[in-house]
Design brief:
Blueprint (H helix, E strand, L loop, with lengths): L6 H20 L11 H13 L10 H20 L26 H9 L6 H16 L3 H5 L6 E2 L4 E5 L5 E5 L2 H14 L20 H14 L8 H13 L4 H8 L4 H8 L3 H12 L6
Antiparallel strand pairs: 1-2, 2-3
Protein name: Site-specific recombinase XerD
Family: Belongs to the 'phage' integrase family.
InterPro entries: CB, DNA_brk_join_enz, Integrase-like_cat_sf, Integrase_catalytic, Integrase_recombinase_N, Integrase_SAM-like_N, Tyrosine_recombinase_XerCD
């Protein structure tokens, strides 16, 4: 099951399987994998859909679907390992996820955000570099947090990141992002933890994905952007790429997606806006 999976992914699978096991035990249902049926799993899904969320209300449809997929992978592994004869998930469909496009970050908001990071302090240079890398590459927060010093290549202007499924790729960046990175590296050289390999440093050492997310939230508040989180940069990158008339295939290579379904999901954030702009450019009614 752990083949080519990141440690965090494996941990998430185990946590989700434990959620199923706890439910089955609480309901006095079979807990042996070979005895678990589709009906038991359907009961579990009903339970998940009504389970309270830490933020209030119930778990989101996306969380339920992700948990479903985790446990589904576990049962597929059991079949592959011949621990069970049949997969109870075989004829089940994953829970539907209502389309809720993530709002993109507007150009005006991006300018305010970068203005909020102006200055020559260590934090200002670090945060400016982080924001520009996210905006310019569309990489995931986990990929950003995992960047090491040796992953930067200023000859090719790319940063090497490790994506999902342990698939590495080189994410290119532009001139302004390169300048921001160089300024940050000069400040970083004076940091008490400068000897560590991790690129992004906080007060106590390497920044975690959570630490980066908190920083972005604070900078967003400073710029008047409520609820800003790293993943909005990935949606914004996809929108800006497609709005500029660039190819979907290139977008998939840059972001590390293997399915066009992901392009559609991320591109939905501002699809209507791009469609209106394309209509204006086409000018079909003006040709007659």
């Amino acid at each position: 099951m752990a083949t080519n999976r990141a440690p965090g992914t494996v941990h998430r699978y185990l946590v989700d399987v434990e959620i199923l096991a706890d439910f089955l035990d609480a309901e006095s249902l079979p807990t042996r994998a070979a005895e678990i049926t589709r009906a038991h799993l359907e009961q579990w899904l009903v339970y998940l859909a009504s389970k309270p969320s830490r933020r209030g209300g119930t778990l989101s449809a996306a969380t339920v679907a992700r948990t479903y997929r985790s446990v589904q992978q576990f049962f597929r592994w059991l079949v592959d390992e011949e621990e069970i004869a049949t997969d109870p998930f075989a004829k089940m469909r994953p829970p539907a996820i209502p389309e809720q496009p993530v709002p993109i970050i507007t150009d005006a908001e991006l300018r305010r955000l970068l203005d909020a990071c102006k200055g020559n302090t260590f934090e200002a240079r670090r945060d400016n570099a982080i924001l520009r890398v996210l905006l310019d590459t569309g990489i995931r927060a986990s990929e950003l947090a995992g960047i090491e010093l040796d992953d930067l290549d200023f000859e090719l202007d790319v940063v090497r990141v490790m994506g999902k499924g342990r698939r590495g790729r080189a994410a290119p960046f532009g001139v302004k992002t390169g300048d921001a990175l160089r300024r940050y590296l000069r400040s970083r050289a004076q940091h008490p933890h400068a000897a560590v390999s991790a690129l992004w440093l906080g007060v106590r050492g390497p920044m975690t994905p959570s630490g980066i997310s908190q920083m972005i939230g604070r900078r967003g508040t400073d710029a008047g952007i409520d609820g800003l989180h790293p993943h909005r940069f990935r949606h914004t990158f996809a929108h800006r790429w497609l709005a500029a008339g660039n190819q979907e295939q290139d977008l998939m290579r840059l972001t590390g997606w293997r399915s066009r379904e992901m392009v559609g999901r991320y591109a939905a954030s501002a699809a209507d806006q791009r469609a209106r702009e394309a209509h204006r450019r086409a000018g079909l009614g003006d040709d007659l």
